[in-house]
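[job 4417] fold queue: 2 targets
>>> target A
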Amino acid sequence: MTSAVPLEALCDLLRRAAKAEIMPRFRNLGEGQVRAKSEASDLVTEADESAERFMRGEIGDIVPGALFIGEESVAADAALLGRLKDAETAIIVDPVDGTYNFAAGVPLFGVMLSMVRNGETVAGIIYDPVGDDWFVAEKGAGAFRITPDGSRSRLAVAEPLPLEQMVGTASIGFLFGNQRAQVLSNLARARSFFNYRCAAHEYRVLSAGVTQFTIYNKLMPWDHLAGVLIHQEAGGYAAKFDGSPYLPTDTDGGLIAAVDKESWKLILKEIIERGA
């Protein structure tokens, strides 16, 4: 177990940011409060920016000296992300994961935070502002769902299944051309797959034993660090497409998270590599 991770205070910070800056704007965004970033489906809202400012303003009191990296901060200053590799302690946040859903009024979004120490993810939190609960993990200490009354229940991934019985999620928006078509075709070999457009909830259902796998190709730290740690502490296995461990500084190379290593190998072979 890691030491001196102020998990309770960090959980409280996410909840307070959501109640102050996110939920009052849900289905209540005014004109000019939603903007496109890199493309029409890549959105930022006033809730994203305000919630990140809220967390950035208080994180120094909770984790003194930590480097703060937020998705919207990096959008404003891309060089900030490069500082992660040399940081002794860093806090990485996605203030509203699932912004596309949030902006559309769909109640499927989350707030994600991870703590990285000397290049290793040591804590992860996914807060659901709608359900008002947290999925949390500390390195080596297991993964848990925490409710507002403080009760904790341990998370565990599902039992392995044959590919034709697996249910999973896949985000293929950053696969292109023949590769995208091939992966889509291969996904039909599973029982079912879907895409929430929200990594926070995709990692939650995986870590709670509802699904058997998830696949991503774009690897920004705010989208995956917390979810991968929670999933691994719930008993799952995750690695990049080339079999290497997923690290906080990785931003490409593809990622598969599955209930165990054999399932990971099967998904790589039959969904990612088949027909390539």
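>>> target B
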Amino acid sequence: MASELQIRAFLPADAAAVRDLFIQVNRLLAPAHLAEAFEGYIARSLAEEIDRLSDYYASRNGGFWVAVDGDIVGMFGLEAVGDRTMELRRMYVAPGARRRGIARKMLAFAEEECRRRNRLELQLSTSELQQDALALYRSAGYENVREEIADAASNKTLGGGIRRYHFTKRL
């Protein structure tokens, strides 16, 4: 039950479950015509970030957390952007645990962590493929500050002509 949900800092023992969740969610997001591009994005993200979470986020004055309800059912990271802002990254909920308020609880936790660090703005981006995420961020008071068609791939975006939405919220 979501009432037993615990959000805690990522531990090395969580690495395999986080890796599996990242791969599962991204494969589910992939439209058939972009399946190959998603596999490239997954491989790049694993190498550059997911398989080295502690080092990656520490080097960016951030952190990574997991949501646990028996198993790991969610995850997210925060990385510093300048002196006063954090960027929300990799917020995913396991498909079998969705529609239980887990993403909203992780988002509230992330916002509180930003306040604790005296970073009073949270930025994030998501794509047109993630309609539930778009609805969540809009309902949680995030302002859509920019949209783009992402052509170039990186560990932060697939590219492939997907529309990306960039949001921000003053905390």
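[job 4417] complete. Note on B: The chain has one domain: 2-122.
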